[in-house]
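Please, structure for the following, as C-alpha coordinates.
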Amino acid sequence: MSDQRVRLLTAFVLVFVISGLTVGSASAQSAVTDVARGQGEVSHTPWGDPDIQGIWTSSGATPFERPNDFEGRETLSNEEVAQIRTEADERSQQLLNAPARRTQAGSNVGAYNDFWMDRGARTNRTSMVVDPVDGRLPPLTPQGQKARNRWLKAPGGRELDDTWEDRHIWERCVTRGGMPNAMFPRSYNNNMHVFQSPGYVVMLLEQVHEVRVVPLDDRPHLPENITQWNGDARGYWDGDTLVVTTKNIDHRVSGLQPWSLFHSHEGSGDGLTLVERFTRTSSGELEYAVEVTDPQMYTRPWTVSFPFSLSSDLMFEYACHEGNEGMVGILAGGRAEDAEEAATR
Protein backbone atom coordinates (compact mmCIF):
# COMPACT_ATOMS: atom_id res chain seq x y z
CA MET A 1 0.00 0.00 0.00
CA SER A 2 1.36 3.46 -0.90
CA ASP A 3 2.43 5.92 1.77
CA GLN A 4 -0.36 8.26 0.73
CA ARG A 5 -3.01 5.55 1.13
CA VAL A 6 -1.54 4.53 4.48
CA ARG A 7 -1.78 8.12 5.67
CA LEU A 8 -5.38 8.42 4.46
CA LEU A 9 -6.34 5.13 6.13
CA THR A 10 -4.62 6.17 9.38
CA ALA A 11 -6.45 9.48 9.38
CA PHE A 12 -9.77 7.72 8.78
CA VAL A 13 -9.18 5.25 11.62
CA LEU A 14 -8.20 8.03 14.03
CA VAL A 15 -11.32 10.03 13.15
CA PHE A 16 -13.48 6.93 13.61
CA VAL A 17 -11.97 6.04 17.00
CA ILE A 18 -12.07 9.58 18.34
CA SER A 19 -15.68 10.03 17.20
CA GLY A 20 -16.65 6.79 18.92
CA LEU A 21 -15.04 7.82 22.18
CA THR A 22 -16.58 11.29 22.15
CA VAL A 23 -20.08 10.16 21.22
CA GLY A 24 -22.80 12.23 22.81
CA SER A 25 -23.13 15.95 22.42
CA ALA A 26 -21.26 19.19 22.74
CA SER A 27 -22.90 19.58 26.13
CA ALA A 28 -20.82 16.65 27.46
CA GLN A 29 -17.63 18.44 26.45
CA SER A 30 -18.77 21.69 28.00
CA ALA A 31 -19.68 19.83 31.20
CA VAL A 32 -16.16 18.41 31.42
CA THR A 33 -14.73 21.89 30.80
CA ASP A 34 -16.91 23.34 33.55
CA VAL A 35 -15.72 20.63 35.95
CA ALA A 36 -12.11 21.40 35.08
CA ARG A 37 -12.74 25.02 35.98
CA GLY A 38 -14.26 24.02 39.30
CA GLN A 39 -17.77 25.08 38.29
CA GLY A 40 -20.95 23.16 38.96
CA GLU A 41 -21.51 19.63 40.20
CA VAL A 42 -19.88 16.44 38.98
CA SER A 43 -21.80 15.66 35.81
CA HIS A 44 -23.06 12.56 34.03
CA THR A 45 -22.61 11.61 30.40
CA PRO A 46 -25.54 11.96 27.99
CA TRP A 47 -26.16 8.20 28.38
CA GLY A 48 -26.30 8.46 32.18
CA ASP A 49 -22.90 7.22 33.44
CA PRO A 50 -20.88 9.28 35.94
CA ASP A 51 -18.51 11.46 33.93
CA ILE A 52 -14.86 10.78 34.78
CA GLN A 53 -13.44 11.98 31.46
CA GLY A 54 -10.42 14.22 31.28
CA ILE A 55 -6.67 14.27 31.78
CA TRP A 56 -5.80 13.29 35.34
CA THR A 57 -2.48 13.46 37.15
CA SER A 58 -1.30 11.77 40.35
CA SER A 59 1.59 12.43 42.72
CA GLY A 60 4.57 10.19 43.34
CA ALA A 61 5.72 12.35 46.26
CA THR A 62 3.71 10.43 48.87
CA PRO A 63 5.54 7.33 50.21
CA PHE A 64 4.22 3.99 48.96
CA GLU A 65 4.54 2.49 52.45
CA ARG A 66 4.23 4.43 55.71
CA PRO A 67 7.59 5.57 57.13
CA ASN A 68 8.34 4.62 60.72
CA ASP A 69 8.27 8.31 61.69
CA PHE A 70 4.53 8.37 60.97
CA GLU A 71 3.62 5.07 62.59
CA GLY A 72 -0.03 5.02 63.65
CA ARG A 73 -0.90 8.13 61.60
CA GLU A 74 -2.93 8.05 58.39
CA THR A 75 -2.68 11.76 57.63
CA LEU A 76 -0.45 14.78 58.23
CA SER A 77 -1.45 18.22 59.41
CA ASN A 78 -1.63 21.11 56.95
CA GLU A 79 1.47 22.60 58.57
CA GLU A 80 3.44 19.37 58.11
CA VAL A 81 2.41 19.11 54.46
CA ALA A 82 3.39 22.73 53.84
CA GLN A 83 6.81 22.13 55.41
CA ILE A 84 7.43 18.98 53.34
CA ARG A 85 6.44 20.79 50.15
CA THR A 86 8.68 23.74 50.97
CA GLU A 87 11.65 21.47 51.64
CA ALA A 88 11.00 19.60 48.38
CA ASP A 89 10.85 22.89 46.44
CA GLU A 90 14.09 24.07 48.03
CA ARG A 91 15.85 20.82 47.16
CA SER A 92 14.61 21.02 43.56
CA GLN A 93 15.94 24.56 43.29
CA GLN A 94 19.32 23.49 44.68
CA LEU A 95 19.54 20.67 42.15
CA LEU A 96 18.53 23.01 39.35
CA ASN A 97 21.33 25.42 40.25
CA ALA A 98 23.97 22.75 40.97
CA PRO A 99 26.86 22.33 38.50
CA ALA A 100 26.44 19.55 35.97
CA ARG A 101 27.98 16.18 36.82
CA ARG A 102 29.52 14.44 33.82
CA THR A 103 29.61 10.67 33.60
CA GLN A 104 32.82 8.78 33.04
CA ALA A 105 33.45 5.36 31.60
CA GLY A 106 33.51 2.72 34.31
CA SER A 107 31.57 4.82 36.81
CA ASN A 108 27.90 5.19 37.65
CA VAL A 109 26.19 6.60 34.58
CA GLY A 110 23.49 8.19 36.74
CA ALA A 111 19.99 9.03 35.51
CA TYR A 112 17.96 12.00 34.33
CA ASN A 113 18.64 15.22 36.16
CA ASP A 114 16.00 17.03 38.20
CA PHE A 115 14.78 19.05 35.21
CA TRP A 116 12.96 15.97 33.91
CA MET A 117 11.33 14.98 37.20
CA ASP A 118 7.69 15.77 37.95
CA ARG A 119 6.83 13.96 41.17
CA GLY A 120 3.85 16.16 41.93
CA ALA A 121 2.89 17.72 45.26
CA ARG A 122 2.94 15.76 48.51
CA THR A 123 -0.55 14.92 49.78
CA ASN A 124 -1.54 14.81 53.44
CA ARG A 125 -1.49 11.00 53.43
CA THR A 126 1.35 9.18 55.13
CA SER A 127 1.31 6.28 52.65
CA MET A 128 -0.39 5.00 49.52
CA VAL A 129 -0.92 1.61 51.17
CA VAL A 130 -4.16 1.84 53.16
CA ASP A 131 -4.75 -1.84 53.88
CA PRO A 132 -3.20 -3.28 56.01
CA VAL A 133 -4.12 -0.35 58.23
CA ASP A 134 -0.53 0.14 59.37
CA GLY A 135 0.29 1.40 55.88
CA ARG A 136 2.79 -1.40 55.27
CA LEU A 137 2.63 -4.27 52.80
CA PRO A 138 1.70 -7.63 54.35
CA PRO A 139 4.32 -10.33 55.00
CA LEU A 140 5.72 -12.21 52.04
CA THR A 141 5.04 -15.86 51.36
CA PRO A 142 8.08 -18.19 51.24
CA GLN A 143 7.92 -17.91 47.44
CA GLY A 144 7.73 -14.13 47.71
CA GLN A 145 10.78 -14.01 49.96
CA LYS A 146 12.69 -16.26 47.60
CA ALA A 147 11.71 -14.03 44.67
CA ARG A 148 12.86 -10.90 46.48
CA ASN A 149 16.25 -12.49 47.08
CA ARG A 150 16.72 -14.07 43.66
CA TRP A 151 14.88 -11.99 41.06
CA LEU A 152 16.77 -8.72 41.40
CA LYS A 153 18.05 -7.32 38.10
CA ALA A 154 21.08 -5.97 39.97
CA PRO A 155 21.90 -8.41 42.79
CA GLY A 156 24.51 -6.96 45.13
CA GLY A 157 24.62 -3.88 42.93
CA ARG A 158 26.01 -5.79 39.92
CA GLU A 159 23.76 -5.40 36.92
CA LEU A 160 22.59 -8.55 35.12
CA ASP A 161 23.21 -8.29 31.38
CA ASP A 162 23.25 -11.77 29.84
CA THR A 163 19.95 -11.14 28.03
CA TRP A 164 17.32 -8.42 27.67
CA GLU A 165 15.09 -10.51 29.94
CA ASP A 166 17.52 -9.76 32.78
CA ARG A 167 16.16 -6.21 32.67
CA HIS A 168 12.75 -5.10 33.89
CA ILE A 169 9.85 -4.96 31.41
CA TRP A 170 9.55 -1.21 32.11
CA GLU A 171 13.25 -0.69 31.36
CA ARG A 172 12.66 -2.61 28.14
CA CYS A 173 9.81 -0.22 27.26
CA VAL A 174 7.34 -3.11 27.01
CA THR A 175 5.03 -1.83 29.75
CA ARG A 176 5.32 0.30 32.87
CA GLY A 177 5.42 -2.92 34.83
CA GLY A 178 2.06 -4.40 33.92
CA MET A 179 -0.95 -4.07 36.20
CA PRO A 180 -1.22 -2.97 38.96
CA ASN A 181 2.15 -1.24 38.61
CA ALA A 182 1.15 0.68 35.49
CA MET A 183 -1.20 2.79 37.62
CA PHE A 184 1.20 3.63 40.45
CA PRO A 185 2.73 7.14 40.31
CA ARG A 186 6.48 7.50 40.06
CA SER A 187 8.95 10.35 39.53
CA TYR A 188 7.41 11.65 36.30
CA ASN A 189 4.80 11.03 33.57
CA ASN A 190 1.99 10.28 36.01
CA ASN A 191 -0.83 11.34 33.70
CA MET A 192 -3.89 9.41 32.53
CA HIS A 193 -6.42 10.43 29.87
CA VAL A 194 -9.87 8.93 30.40
CA PHE A 195 -12.40 8.60 27.57
CA GLN A 196 -15.95 7.26 27.81
CA SER A 197 -18.53 5.96 25.36
CA PRO A 198 -21.67 3.87 25.92
CA GLY A 199 -20.48 0.51 27.26
CA TYR A 200 -16.78 1.38 27.56
CA VAL A 201 -14.24 3.32 29.59
CA VAL A 202 -10.81 3.80 28.02
CA MET A 203 -7.69 4.89 29.91
CA LEU A 204 -4.63 6.13 28.04
CA LEU A 205 -1.69 5.95 30.45
CA GLU A 206 1.10 8.38 29.66
CA GLN A 207 3.80 5.86 30.48
CA VAL A 208 4.41 3.71 28.49
CA HIS A 209 1.63 5.06 26.18
CA GLU A 210 -0.55 2.12 27.19
CA VAL A 211 -4.29 1.92 26.54
CA ARG A 212 -6.62 0.08 28.90
CA VAL A 213 -10.03 -0.69 27.37
CA VAL A 214 -12.65 -1.57 30.00
CA PRO A 215 -15.94 -3.06 28.68
CA LEU A 216 -18.92 -2.40 30.95
CA ASP A 217 -21.18 -5.24 29.80
CA ASP A 218 -21.51 -8.80 31.09
CA ARG A 219 -19.13 -10.45 28.64
CA PRO A 220 -16.96 -13.16 30.23
CA HIS A 221 -13.23 -12.76 30.76
CA LEU A 222 -10.87 -14.20 28.17
CA PRO A 223 -9.92 -17.88 28.48
CA GLU A 224 -7.34 -18.46 31.20
CA ASN A 225 -4.61 -19.34 28.68
CA ILE A 226 -4.83 -15.90 27.05
CA THR A 227 -2.91 -13.37 29.14
CA GLN A 228 -1.85 -9.77 28.69
CA TRP A 229 0.64 -7.45 30.35
CA ASN A 230 -2.16 -5.33 31.81
CA GLY A 231 -4.60 -8.19 32.12
CA ASP A 232 -8.19 -8.52 30.94
CA ALA A 233 -10.45 -5.89 32.52
CA ARG A 234 -14.22 -5.85 33.06
CA GLY A 235 -16.05 -2.99 34.72
CA TYR A 236 -19.41 -1.86 36.07
CA TRP A 237 -20.84 1.17 37.87
CA ASP A 238 -21.62 0.82 41.56
CA GLY A 239 -23.46 4.08 42.08
CA ASP A 240 -20.93 6.79 41.16
CA THR A 241 -17.93 4.42 41.46
CA LEU A 242 -16.42 2.59 38.51
CA VAL A 243 -15.40 -0.89 39.68
CA VAL A 244 -12.90 -2.74 37.46
CA THR A 245 -11.90 -6.37 37.95
CA THR A 246 -8.74 -7.45 36.14
CA LYS A 247 -7.61 -11.05 35.58
CA ASN A 248 -5.45 -12.91 33.03
CA ILE A 249 -2.34 -10.88 33.84
CA ASP A 250 0.81 -12.25 32.19
CA HIS A 251 2.72 -14.56 34.53
CA ARG A 252 5.89 -12.44 34.10
CA VAL A 253 4.21 -9.42 35.71
CA SER A 254 5.08 -9.18 39.39
CA GLY A 255 3.00 -7.68 42.16
CA LEU A 256 6.13 -7.88 44.31
CA GLN A 257 7.16 -4.40 45.42
CA PRO A 258 9.20 -2.34 44.61
CA TRP A 259 8.27 -3.73 41.22
CA SER A 260 10.97 -1.97 39.15
CA LEU A 261 13.83 -3.79 40.91
CA PHE A 262 13.18 -7.18 39.36
CA HIS A 263 13.94 -8.89 36.06
CA SER A 264 11.45 -10.06 33.42
CA HIS A 265 11.97 -13.82 33.61
CA GLU A 266 9.31 -14.55 36.20
CA GLY A 267 6.50 -12.84 38.05
CA SER A 268 3.47 -13.51 40.22
CA GLY A 269 2.21 -16.39 38.13
CA ASP A 270 -1.43 -16.97 37.26
CA GLY A 271 -3.13 -15.94 40.51
CA LEU A 272 -2.67 -12.16 40.40
CA THR A 273 -6.09 -10.43 40.37
CA LEU A 274 -7.11 -6.81 40.92
CA VAL A 275 -10.22 -4.89 41.91
CA GLU A 276 -9.99 -1.15 41.18
CA ARG A 277 -12.35 1.64 42.17
CA PHE A 278 -12.54 5.07 40.51
CA THR A 279 -14.71 7.64 42.29
CA ARG A 280 -15.02 11.30 41.32
CA THR A 281 -15.15 12.87 44.76
CA SER A 282 -15.28 16.47 43.52
CA SER A 283 -15.16 18.42 40.30
CA GLY A 284 -11.37 18.27 40.24
CA GLU A 285 -10.49 15.05 42.08
CA LEU A 286 -10.75 11.36 41.27
CA GLU A 287 -10.10 8.91 44.10
CA TYR A 288 -8.37 5.71 42.99
CA ALA A 289 -8.06 2.47 44.94
CA VAL A 290 -6.85 -0.98 43.94
CA GLU A 291 -7.04 -4.19 45.95
CA VAL A 292 -4.24 -6.54 44.92
CA THR A 293 -4.58 -10.28 45.47
CA ASP A 294 -1.20 -11.90 44.85
CA PRO A 295 -1.19 -15.30 46.61
CA GLN A 296 2.22 -16.27 45.26
CA MET A 297 4.00 -13.26 46.75
CA TYR A 298 1.94 -12.03 49.71
CA THR A 299 0.16 -13.75 52.61
CA ARG A 300 -2.97 -11.61 52.20
CA PRO A 301 -4.45 -9.03 49.80
CA TRP A 302 -3.39 -5.39 50.10
CA THR A 303 -4.89 -2.09 48.96
CA VAL A 304 -3.36 1.10 47.64
CA SER A 305 -5.29 4.37 47.38
CA PHE A 306 -4.38 7.86 46.16
CA PRO A 307 -6.08 10.81 44.43
CA PHE A 308 -5.86 11.97 40.84
CA SER A 309 -6.27 15.69 40.14
CA LEU A 310 -7.85 17.05 36.97
CA SER A 311 -5.22 18.71 34.79
CA SER A 312 -5.60 21.55 32.31
CA ASP A 313 -2.37 20.51 30.52
CA LEU A 314 -2.12 18.47 27.36
CA MET A 315 -0.67 14.96 27.48
CA PHE A 316 2.03 14.19 24.95
CA GLU A 317 3.37 10.87 23.70
CA TYR A 318 5.87 9.04 25.88
CA ALA A 319 7.98 7.76 23.00
CA CYS A 320 9.66 4.80 24.68
CA HIS A 321 10.51 1.81 22.50
CA GLU A 322 12.25 -1.50 23.02
CA GLY A 323 15.09 -0.76 20.59
CA ASN A 324 16.43 2.11 22.67
CA GLU A 325 20.15 2.76 22.90
CA GLY A 326 20.24 2.05 26.64
CA MET A 327 19.52 -1.63 26.06
CA VAL A 328 22.16 -1.78 23.32
CA GLY A 329 24.69 -0.26 25.70
CA ILE A 330 23.80 -2.56 28.62
CA LEU A 331 24.17 -5.76 26.58
CA ALA A 332 27.24 -4.50 24.71
CA GLY A 333 28.87 -3.62 28.02
CA GLY A 334 28.08 -7.09 29.32
CA ARG A 335 29.72 -8.71 26.31
CA ALA A 336 32.79 -6.48 26.76
CA GLU A 337 33.04 -7.63 30.40
CA ASP A 338 32.69 -11.26 29.26
CA ALA A 339 35.56 -10.76 26.79
CA GLU A 340 37.79 -9.25 29.49
CA GLU A 341 37.10 -12.17 31.84
CA ALA A 342 37.76 -14.69 29.07
CA ALA A 343 41.10 -13.02 28.28
CA THR A 344 42.32 -13.55 31.86
CA ARG A 345 41.63 -17.30 31.92
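Strands lie at 54-58, 129-131, 191-197, 200-205, 210-215, 232-238, 241-247, 273-282, 285-293, 302-310. Residues 3-75+125-343 form one domain.
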